[in-house]
Amino acid sequence: VQLVESGGGLVQPGGSLRLSCTASGFTFSSYAMRWSRQAPGKEREWVAVIGSDGGRRNYVNSVKGRFNISRDNAKNTVYLQMNSLKPEDTAVYYCNAVGPYSYWGQGTQVTVSS
Questions:
Q1: Which pLDDT tens digit goes with each residue over 36-88?
Q2: Per residue, what are the HEC states of 44-56?
Q3: pLDDT tens digits along 6-35
Q4: Which terminus in the chain has less CB density within 10 A, N or C?
Q5: CB of 86 within 8 A of CB of 67?
Q6: In angstroms, what CA-CA distances link 16 with 26, 27, 90, 102?
Q7: Where are the beta strands (DSSP E) in the chain?
Q8: Closest by CA position to 13, among listed 79, 99, 101, 85
């Protein structure tokens, strides 16, 4: 089982990034997928979740209207489009498969700074 995140980096406030997470080794289309993040000195928090068929999406209040989660089951990939980024969005972002088992990626760093 493997979840590989990509797309992180350094961006200025107000900018955008698109994270990707590609899965292998399990039936991706049977799992809800979640993005979580952990900032230095803080606990990990969930950011966005999408149902196995993409029909349900939920977001933590702090990112509503700015982030969009989507998935492509044909590509075993989940995305997080992040717009209007703020310095407080700086964190390591992780994708997480939620189902009969829980799988985590290794994370990708997002830094929002001028």
A1: 999 999 999 999 999 999 989 999 999 999 999 999 999 999 999 999 999 99
A2: CEEEEEECCCCCC
A3: 999 999 999 999 999 999 999 999 999 999
A4: C
A5: no
A6: 30, 30, 12, 28
A7: 2-6, 9-11, 17-24, 32-38, 45-50, 57-59, 67-72, 77-82, 91-98, 102-104, 108-112
A8: 85
Q: Looking at this protein, which amino acid is placed at residue 2? A: Q
Tokens read off for 86: 């703020």
Enter the tokens of residue 62. 């702090």
67 in Cβ contact with 91 (< 8 Å)? no
